[in-house]
Structure formats: C-alpha cells, structure tokens
C-alpha cells in the first residue's frame, strides 16, 4: 500500500482472466454498509465498446494502452430487486442513495487497485465517466435507472516506474480530538516541497502538458470556470435521469 502509485503506461500484454477475477473478488471483500454491496463492475473487452466510451468521455493515453478496463458502478438495481423478491419495498431518499452507493463502490474499487498492485500489475482511475454517465449507461446496456457508472479503472502490466507523487504531511491530515485548520505556513511549505518534487520528477512533461512549468500553473489550468460549470450541469441532469437526484 505504501508503494502504490498510479501507472499510466502499460505493456502490450494481456492480463489473464483469473487475475482479473481475483482482483474483482478482492473488491468484493471491501467493507460494505449493511452488506448491501451496492456495486457492479463492467469489464469492457469489446474494442467497439471501448471506442464508444472513448468517444463519450475522451481518450487518454492510459486508456489506449491499458488492456483491462473495468467500469466501476454504483448499483442499487440488483439490491432493490433482491429486496423486492423478499417482499420488502424500499423508499431510499436520493441523497442517502447516492452517498451510500459512492462509498460502497469506491471502497471496492480501491481494494481492486491494491489487489492489482499485489499481483504485480499497475492501475489508474479515469474520472471522466462523470461527464457522460447516461451515455455510458446506455452503451453498457444498464437498466434505465439505479445504476451509475462512477470511474473507469484501467489495469495492466506496468511499462513505467514513476516516482511517487507528493502528499500532505501526516501533521496536515491527522488531527487529534479537534480539527486543526491548516496554517498559512503549512500550506506554503506543502506547495513549495510538492512543487519542487514535481519539477524534479518532470511531472508536467510526463503528463504531456505544454507550456506548464509549475504546479500552480497546472492547478490553474485544471479549473477553467466555464468548463467546470458545464460538467456540473451535465452531471446533475444525468444523476436525475439515472434516479440519483431529485
Ligand atoms: C476519482 C479519480 C479520478 C482520476 N482520474 C484520472 C484521470 O482521468 N486521468 C489520470 O491520468 N489520472 C487520474 N486519476 C489519478 C490521479 O491523478 C492520481 O491518483 C493522483 O495524481 C495521485 O497520484 P498517485 O495515484 O500516483 O499517488 C484519478 C484518480 C481518482 C481517485
């Protein structure tokens, strides 16, 4: 766990099916509220479906190189059907449905990331499904509602060994008894140390971002105000359509 890092370059080598299944089994062993297991994982092996998804969310190099694509989804459909089969009608409130589902699916996804690491594989999450959840749901033939694609997990044999990316100090993230707001100094120290490290490791060149030489510029570039608002609007509309928001 302390060695893990995102891997974005993969060897052109298939991952045996039994390893993929072991990874998914490890995902299933994650804690899950009320043992509800509110997730499904769609293994996308069909090149045509990969192309459709790439068109819907945009294609990153890690997606093109990764032999294994797993769409991690929040899935209330199966659980509600299961309860119905027992004569139990449920009326979950929307925010709770979203909250519980995301926790459940993401805990399982992280177990899968760690399982991949333990098996000598590398992985990276792609968060772009949030810009086209309904389209993805339709491409992957999900039910009309109650299934929400959340992240794409790309897995394969690593073809790179990048340095670990910086993190906040333990002091910044670990509080005892009382929350302590980050001081100006702590924030300054974090930026300076992290920026130095990212420049040293050629991070911006690695990400193939032109004209960026500091982390501040990179962060600024990632938050163009208009584009973020559009994503928010699309996400809200899609969440409504998929039954996760009023
Ligand atoms: C929800 C989520 C979405 C992510 N989306 C992307 C992505 O679209 N492309 C990418 O290259 N990395 C993506 N990542 C990986 C992060 O960029 C990466 O975890 C972070 O920069 C820290 O690096 P590390 O994982 O190597 O420690 C994502 C990670 C998470 C948790």
Please tell me about this protein's structure:
By secondary structure, this protein is an alpha+beta fold. It is 48% helix and 11% strand. The protein is built from 11 helices and 4 strands. The chain has helices spanning 17-28, 47-57, 61-65, 77-85, 94-118, 133-139, 170-173, 184-200, 203-206, 215-221, 225-241; strands at residues 39-43, 68-75, 122-126, 147-156. The chain has a 4-stranded antiparallel beta sheet with strand order 1-2-4-3, sandwiched between helices. Helix 1 crosses helix 5 (94-118). The model has no long low-confidence stretch (mean pLDDT 94). The structure holds flavin mononucleotide (FMN). Flavin mononucleotide binds at residues 5-6, 8, 60, 62, 124-128, 151, 165.
What is the averaged pLDDT score?
94
Low-confidence stretches: none
CATH class of the domain at 17-162: Alpha Beta
Globular, elongated, flat, extended or rod-shaped: what is the shape?
globular
What name does CATH use for the topology of the domain at 17-162?
Answer: NADH Oxidase
Q: Write down the Rg.
A: 20 Å
């Amino acid at each position: 766990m302390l060695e893990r890092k995102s891997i974005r370059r993969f060897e052109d080598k298939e991952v045996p099916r039994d390893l993929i299944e072991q990874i998914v089994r490890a995902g299933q062993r994650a804690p899950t509220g009320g043992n509800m297991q509110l997730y499904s994982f769609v293994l996308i092996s069909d090149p045509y479906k990969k192309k459709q998804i790439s068109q819907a969310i945009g294609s990153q190099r890690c997606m093109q190189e990764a032999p294994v694509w797993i769409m991690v989804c929040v899935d209330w459909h199966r659980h509600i059907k299961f309860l119905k089969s027992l004569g139990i009608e449920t009326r979950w409130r929307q925010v709770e449905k979203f909250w519980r589902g995301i926790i459940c699916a993401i805990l399982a996804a992280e177990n899968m990331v760690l399982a991949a690491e333990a098996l000598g594989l590398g992985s990276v999450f792609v968060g772009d499904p949030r810009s086209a959840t309904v389209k993805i749901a339709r491409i992957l033939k999900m039910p009309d509602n109650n299934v929400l694609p959340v992240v794409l997990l790309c897995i394969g044999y690593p073809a790179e060994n990048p340095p670990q990316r910086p993190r906040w100090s333990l002091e910044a993230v670990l509080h005892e008894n009382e929350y302590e707001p980050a001081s100006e100094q702590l924030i300054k120290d974090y930026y300076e140390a992290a920026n130095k490290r990212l420049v040293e490791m050629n991070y911006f060149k690695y990400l193939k971002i032109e004209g960026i030489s500091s982390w501040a510029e990179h962060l600024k570039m990632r938050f163009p105000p208009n584009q973020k608002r559009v994503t928010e609007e699309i996400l809200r509309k899609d969440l409504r359509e998929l039954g996760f928001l009023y």
